[in-house]
User: Fold NADH-ubiquinone oxidoreductase chain 5 from Gonodactylus smithii.
Amino acid sequence: MYVSSMFFLLLGSSTSLIMSLMSLYSGVGYFIEWEIVSTNSSSVVMTLILDWMSLMFLGFVMLISSMVLYYSGGYMEGDPNMNRFIYLVLMFVVSMVALIISPNLISILLGWDGLGLVSYCLVIYYQNEKSGAAGMLTALSNRVGDVAILLAISLMSVYGGWNFVFYLNSICGNESLGMLCFLVMLAAMTKSAQIPFSAWLPAAMAAPTPVSALVHSSTLVTAGVYLLVRFEPAMHNSVYSQGLLLLGGTTMFMAGLGANFEYDLKKIIALSTLSQLGVMMSILGFGLPDLAFFHLLSHALFKALLFMCAGVIIHSAKDYQDIRMMGGLSKFMPLTTFYMNLANLALCGMPFMAGFYSKDVILEMAFMGTINYISFLMYVFATGLTVCYTARLVYYSITGGFNMGSLHTVNDESGLLTSPMFLLALGAVSAGSMLSWLIVPYPYMICLSSFYKSLVLIVCMLGAWVGYVFNLGSFLYVLNSFKYYKSVVFSGSMWFMPFLSTQNMIFNFLVNGFSIYKMGDQGWFENKGGYNLHGSLMKSSGLLEKMQDNSIKLYMITFLFWAVLSIIIM
Assistant:
């Protein structure tokens, strides 16, 4: 089944990419409206937009999904619920397709909610306590964005329609509809896990690795970025775009810092996704949606490849995810480590790899622009931290000493796992240059001093050196031994965001609820309610029973009572 689904998606991907190139060459897009039901003066209309942007993104989503489905055939081999898993992945892809080709907020909500629902089913796929908690955190975090979309739909009703592509310029100039931009930005921040909604992204690693490869490359987390790319003209140079720049930069810095203290292989890659999402959001806030979309596409290819490599390593390494339990894998898995190094180099922005063409232009445009010192420093530090945690990951897992013990079956023999990586590896090497020719046909005018021009390279080299020093062990020992311990915990726990999003939010409610339960249900309500009523009824029932017991003594007392009462009344 996964083979037929893979071929179907691959065919759809090639068709979509060809149509995207034709649309890009001719400058023509198609806006399709289909009236489903018309009653009196009301009509239900399904709207589709097929322009170069939606078709190109659609092609990338289908390409990566086809590779992930073929990869799942090897990774999920032996799973008793294999067909259910394939159906869930296909539903996930269909939801993303519905979101991509919808220019209408109501039809976007169908794909938006579909992604949230199916992601919950995939995160809890293994049905244990950890995955259940992660799935609930993911679902509830995304529900905030769903409510924001619903409120945005109600606000857009003043236009008499919900095809927002027609009203972007009027929304930009209308101060009374500023709340609409805020709601759309809030929805995008929850879906793309920006601060303060970042906790669910690493938690969603409880899902199977093929799902992680799909979610973190081109589907769930990119939905918010894509929506803001479409909505950017309405927020251009507004206070919301400035807030997006600051929050995106903070997310980028926080995720890069947290990845340097993490030992879970999948969580390190998840935090790198969060860091790159911060890059996309911040450059959107800077007012460059084409560069954000460019980085979205180039990032999708090498991030899917990186997760696939991580899945092969986990699958072979006795299902360990702790990078300290690996080491020296390049000797046993040369093909997988080769692909993983390609993906890591593209992630770091190595010249002439896919990530370089988008990331380098983004950083140089940010350095040339009028950003404040805080945003500038966040860009610089986040770039260095990316190389730092990548060097650390390579040191612990691929190079170094072998730490897996005597019983291991680490190899590259499964063709189902390694074959899909080849196409994505080609994309990680060459897609950046091709996309730059297509999406950015006219070069940006970048005028920087030699210091700022070489700053990215200097920061990357410095980050690699720090990553090496960080792995020596003595540096960590010093940090853990003295007063810096709390700062290490703060940095390695995503600034306590998982705690703030879970236990801290419900703690007061649970404590107060227990107090009300003790004082209310088991206290006053019990004493003056059911228990007291039961005692009163029992006493009354006992009195009536005595009165109806045919006792001569009771009859004589009653007769005497009525006789005395009659004399008094007379």
